[in-house]
Amino acid sequence: MTSTPTKVLIVDDQPSVQNLIRHALAKDPEIEVVGVAGDAYQARDLIKRLNPDVITLDIEMPRMSGLDFLERLMRLRPMPVIMFSSLTQKGSEQAVKALSLGAVDVLSKPLEGFTTDILQKLTQSVKNARHGQSAKGSGVVGPVIKGAPEQVSMARWNGKIVLMGASTGGVAAVEAVLTRMPLDCPPIVISQHMPETFLKSFAGRLNDLLPQRVQLGRHGTSLDQGNIYLSPGGLAHTGVRRNGRLFEVTAIEAPKRNGHIPSVDELFYSGVDIAENITAVLLTGIGKDGAEGMRELKQKGAYCIGQDEASCVVYGMPRAAADMGILDQQLPLQDIARAICASCETRRA
What we know:
Layout: E1 6-11, H1 15-26, E2 31-37, H2 40-50, E3 54-57, H3 66-76, E4 81-85, H4 93-101, E5 105-108, H5 116-131, E6 161-166, H6 170-178, E7 188-192, H7 196-209, E8 213-216, E9 227-230, E10 237-243, E11 246-252, H8 264-270, E12 278-282, H9 291-299, E13 303-307, H10 317-323, E14 329-331, H11 336-343
Parallel strand pairs: 1-2, 1-3, 3-4, 4-5, 6-7, 6-12, 7-9, 8-9, 12-13, 13-14
Antiparallel strand pairs: 10-11
Helix pairs in contact: 3-4, 4-6, 4-7, 8-9, 9-10
């Protein structure tokens, strides 16, 4: 628990919604609502004056959209932002874009009446956002697509595959890594904590953004160089397995693990029998999903990389792996692509 309440600024153009959010958050003694704003310009002035710890932000607002404001905010004054909007229903492109711009969470504002459940989720998300900030206070990942990320080169591929896991802050982090990967990157299988519909939108966004082919990892899909596979979520976890001399995606029908489908631990556990052929990567995220599976991989010969604290939105999952002493490297986000490629290339004589 923090020593002082989390200061929250509510940004929404509807007074009735402002009041509902304020009332719900004020019930929690760990939260203090310090102000409300009806548009981005009011929010800008209040941020300067009130210095909030967390912002809740609508998308559809007058004068400037929430997404435009989020992009500017993350460029000029990065801070934890929770998108709370009716436009984030059903895994919309707006929701995935908000996450890629650096929002730490996206919650759907109900179209027909607020419920206690959604307001409790918003309250918990606010507390997670505050507790999840890095020790240096600079853990929020801003827009990573602006400019031209430095492209990493790779010598001849050595046949290894990459298993990657992420949670809160992971959309922006995954994009930051992938935009630096070479066209002929090793096969990459990603387990990102998101609902099924969001994952479908995220895969589409990545496929439009990247030169590599990005697809949902369906059961039986072969793992080929220059291809990226995103877990589709839903009712099954995503894993990998050997098929003759090649590797392929496998669907794992199992309950939620660590509260998630897809689970990073399930992805990592699936690769234990082929661990010497794997580079495992843990990015930003709440909790410890992936750490136990990574330990099993490490014991069988996998190469293990974790994101460092300073560049994480939430230093949870990589911290769990670091505390176990199983990371071969712990790196800033911008250096992870290079480390992956180095581990997946044939060493020069």
